[in-house]
Amino acid sequence: MRKLGYRIGGLWLASGLLLGSGLFAAPAAEALPTTVPLGGNAYITQSRNKPDETIDDTGLHNWDSPYTTISTYVDVMQPGDLQVSLVGSLSGSTQSTVKVSIGDQSQTVALAPADVANTVFPVGTFRINQPGYVKIDLRGVSNNGGYFGDISGLQLDGTATAGGLLFADDPGNFYWSRRGPSVHLGFNVPAETEYFYSEVTVPAGQDPVGTYYMANGFNVGYFGMQVNAPNKRWILFSVWDPPGGSTTLVAKGNQTIVNNFGGEGTGGQSHMICNWRAGSTYRFVTRAQPDGQGNTLFSAWFGSPQGENACGDNGQGGNEVQAGVKWHFVATWKYPGTSTYQRGVYSFLEGFNPDTGYLGRRASFGNEWAISSSGAWTEMTSAWYDVDPTGYNNQRADFAGGAVGNQFYLRNDGFFTPSVASHQWFYRQPNGIRPDVDLGKLPEQ
Known about the structure:
By secondary structure, this protein is mainly beta.
C-alpha cells in the first residue's frame, strides 16, 4: 500500500537511439540523493528540563543542549547501505561536532563553515538490515559558541534508498504529519437507532499525552476520553453547530464543564475531568432523540468501574451505579433544524499533539450495541476501517486496525511496520449477551 514516489529511486534509461546499423542506449542517469525535511519528520525525543530546541516547518532551531536527542523517522523499503548527510547551517558557533546514530551504529560529523544555508555535511554510511521505519538520531557533542547548528533536513543516498523512501514531503501539512495518521471504525447501525453503547480499553503504556480515544461518534459530534497532559485527563463530548445555527446546552452533569469550541468547525463542548486509567474498561452511551419540534437532543453518559472513583465525587450526586458500573451524566445538547436518530456512527483513535506523534497509541473497542427507539438491541460485529489523509496520502504508514476475538483494535503512531491497509471490513466475534445497563435509569444531572 506504500507509494514509492518520494524520491527519484533507481536508474532510468533514455530512449534508444538508432545510429547506423547499431542500437545504442543513452547512459543511465545517476540517481539523485533524497532530502528528508526535519519539519515534517523529526521530534525531540530526549531532553533535560524544558528544552530550548524547536522544530518548525523549516527544521531544527535553537539547538544548544548536548542532552537533547532529535529523532527523524524514514520508512526505508529495502535493506542496504544508507549514506547520511546533514543539510543546514552552522550559526551561533564557528565549529561544532554532532553525533548521528541509527540503532547501535554511530558516527560524528564536524559542521563548518558558518552561516551558509543549505550546506551539505556528509556523515557516513550506515547498514540497514531490514525494510521498515528507521530512526536517525542527532545529538550535539561539542561547539565553541551557543548552538550546534540549524538543520533543515537529512540527505539520504545509497543502496537502501533504491527501492524508495516514504516520509512526510508536503510542507503544507507538516503539522498533521507530525501528529500522525488517525484511524477509524465505522458502524452501519439500524434505522431509528436512538442509543449507541460501546466499551473502550487502553492497554498499559499506550496512553501518551495528546491522545483521543473516541468511542461514540456520530454525524455531528463525538464522545470519548483524552490524555491532555501528564496529570490531566478528560471525558469529552462535543456537538458541532449546524449550518446557519448554533447548538445549545439543554442540561449538564454536576461535574461537567461546558465551553464552545472552534478550529475544526464550531459547536458546543462538554467535558469532565476524570482520572481514567490504562488497563481498565470504560463504557460509553450516546443518545439521539428527536424533540418533536424539528430538532435533535444529543446526550452522553460515561461508565467507570464502581470502585475506581475515576471521576471523583463532588458531593452533588448525579451518578448511578448499575451492575458494578458507575454512570456519569455528561450533557445534553440541542442541535437545531434537524430531526434524526443516530447516523454516521463511528469510533476513532488520534494523536492531537504534534510533539508526541512519535509515541505509539493503541486501544481495543468492543461490545458495540445499537438500541432502537422501540427498545430493540442489535449487536454490531462488523466495522469499516479507514485512515485519514495523512495515511492515504502516504505521508506516514504507521497505522493499523483489525479484530481480535470479540474486540476491534486501532493502532497509530510510533513508526511501526507494517501498516494495515485502509478501506476494509473487519468482523469481531459476537458476545451474544447485551450489556447490563438500564437506559431508562441513567442519571440526568
